[in-house]
Amino acid sequence: MSELKAWARETFKGVQNLLFPSFTPDLSELDEEGIRLDVRQTIAHGFFATELTTQAGLTFDEAKRFLEIVVDEAGDDLMVSPGIIFDSLEKNIAFLEHAEAVGADFALLSYPSNYYPQSPEDITEVTRAMCQATDLPLVLYPSQKYNFGRFHPSGFPFDVIDALIEIDNVVSILVAITEPGFIFEAFRRYNNEVLVQVPWERWVPLLVTTYGQQWMGPGAYELFQSPEKRYLVDYFNLLLEGRVDEAMELYWRITPARLTFEGQFMPTQTLGTYHWPLQKYYQWLVGGNGGYTREPVMKLAQHTMEEARRAVQALGITPRDNDEEFFVGRAAYARAHS
Question: Shortest CA distance to 130 belongs to which of 176, 168, 173, 94?
Fold first, then answer.
């Protein structure tokens, strides 16, 4: 086992959230104050790491600056991982180099949306090129969104993973394929070599107790908790400690919110994209900055916001109640009304 693989096994323990860019109300530039607020909130929630959604309406240079702000604010209190999801392999590699230079802790690998490999070997070589461009620890991201089902019915060829886990700085696999057979195969085949995990809270009692999954994410898990009532983080950490009965009490407590989340979020995931404003709304309800992201972006309806608000209230958490503040962002709203 490589030094980085051993480091990850010792270090990656807990829940990782998502961190979205915040913009000024006219969406013309980054709102640094709002971004820093979200970093502090992430730490207050008890997440051990955060994943930057670099593909949520940012230019390449803005994505670089977004990462710099987050790394600076996080300090030693939070591990930072950018998503490497840009328009070309060259940009992916350039961003990996930038991430290493500014002090990111690890990174999640992905592929350009228009990437159309001709064989599994093409996927292996392109991914290997990204791995060789940096010394950062890297997380593989097998997902159905890449259209790799052409090569294997699971959605991601196992031959590719077989080759990539041998690379020293590949330390983990984030399984984003919901097929139970793929989840089973990933843990059965790879969990002794690298850390395998799924980000779905409904699966983790089985996977922690059976296979020793030790980290989960990323996700907009703030719908399930607040900084004062860390239900989701506590649930996962109790599972890690072997306190399964206590963990399952929290599992059932968050289930109404979990069902709301799945009903709102999962339909967008199957389209290969995500509802950024909705996830930022979850975070804003319990103290995050909120605010919209740039076009193209999904719209947020009042009935959807009200359903999310009721889910938070059902947990015994009092949500923020001024939706106008959400649409411009907490930091910007405070500046305008100071």
Answer: 94
